[in-house]
Write a structure and sequence with these properties.
It comes from Durusdinium trenchii. Pfam families: E1-E2_ATPase (PF00122). This is P-type ATPase A domain-containing protein. The chain has a 6-stranded antiparallel β-sheet with strand order 2-1-3-9-4-7, with no helix packed on it. By secondary structure, the protein is an alpha+beta fold. It has 5 helices and 9 strands. The chain folds into 2 domains: about 60 residues; about 100 residues, Calcium-transporting ATPase, cytoplasmic transduction domain A (Distorted Sandwich).
């Protein structure tokens, strides 16, 4: 993580400038550049480390257990261990941990706003959509059970859920398309690097060839 602070077009340009100062024995400029480079890298390292610690703490706080029926009885297990075929017991306030189908219990109200944009909670079970058997019993991973208690059988988990497939598609697409602003920054950095290379080459030629070193 610390070494990563010194990679990138701008950092490499500064490092090239420091190397040039070192080669021509320009110690004041070399010292200033190295101090600034190390200060920037150290600050970036501690900021990134602090952010990573916050993310880890958030993940730890989000770890949740849920009653799951196995071998004829309900046991509380971490939701990350839920597999297709498990029967979940959920109550109002729970986040649905996997795509599942309502089996029995109260008529429930499920908030799917984060997934479908539906502003109001939907009723489960309800009448099936035309040509989609059991769609009226479907409960999507990531939705919130607002009202009621029920048992539901898990159909899909992880990346095989609707939200998991969407997240996987976003992850696969990330980094392939470069935004306009990012593209302009990269172009500017490439021009600056090219200019730096030309100037450094000319200086070395002038000092070691023309002046004879």
């Amino acid at each position: 993580m610390f070494l990563k602070q010194f990679t990138g077009p701008m950092q490499i340009m500064i490092e090239c400038a420091a190397l040039l100062c070192f080669l021509i024995h320009n110690w004041p400029d070399f010292t200033i550049i190295m101090v600034l480079l190390m200060t920037n890298g150290t600050l970036g390292f501690f900021e990134e480390k602090s952010a990573q610690a916050s993310v880890d703490a958030l993940k730890a706080g989000l770890e949740k257990k849920m009653p799951v029926k196995r071998n004829g009885k309900f046991d509380s297990i971490p939701v990350v261990q839920v597999v297709p075929g498990d029967v979940l017991f959920m109550r109002g306030g729970d986040i649905v941990p996997a795509d599942c189908y309502w089996v029995e219990g109260d008529p429930c109200q499920v908030d799917e706003a984060a997934l479908t944009g539906e502003s109001l909670p939907v009723k489960v079970p309800r009448k099936d959509d035309s040509g989609k058997p059991f769609s009226g019993r479907q409960m999507w991973s990531g939705s919130i059970l607002k009202v009621g208690e029920c048992q539901a059988v898990v159909s899909h988990t992880g990346v095989n859920t609707m939200i998991g497939e969407a997240a996987k598609a976003i992850q696969e697409a990330s980094g392939k398309d470069i935004g306009v602003f990012e593209g302009k920054i990269i172009e500017a950095a490439q021009v600056l690097i090219l200019i730096t290379v030309v100037v450094v080459t000319f200086l070395f030629y002038f000092m070691y060839v023309v002046q004879g070193g």
